Please model this.
Amino acid sequence: MIQGILLAAGQGQRFDPSGEKDKLLQLRADSGKPVLWHSGSAMCKVLPDTLAVIQGHQPGRVHCLFDAGCEVLISPEAQQGMGSALAAAVKHCLEKKPGITGFVISLGDMPWLPVEAIALVHAELSKVSAQELHAVAPYFQGKRGHPVGLTRAWAGSLLALQGDIGAKNLLRAANMLPIEWPTADVLQDVDVPEDLNYSSRRD
Model:
């Protein structure tokens, strides 16, 4: 069984340094739906029990994630950064579902991530041994995108993550199974307000 994890605990300070606007709740220009809804919905279409991790009291994000079909973990540790958020999510999942064989991990600020890319990462991860340090990810023009699939063998390393250092460093030691992807959708996130218009700029 492969578990979906959506990291949705970031504050998005580059998007709005004042902290007044939650970038994950801003509407995608072409759909009128929140960024976070798109990210969660795409994951849940492939992995219906996707767990989204947030920090503290964020009712807007909780409502959006429930609407997208996600389970939600409110983790105080997530305030420390992406690594801590991921570790908390992995711990929660393993405690609830000890039979997990791998994880497909995505980010809450990637609302254009294709369902097909998620499905392909899931399918490729399902083919490899859960006891070996395998990773799967889509690549566009040589750049690694999301989501990232990791086998159960990574659990100990994921549980040890702290602060804002996520799984990126772990992947340097991974037996990476790259998937060539034809569009930049697997790379595009929302960092600044202009990014919300991304889909209208695609060829």
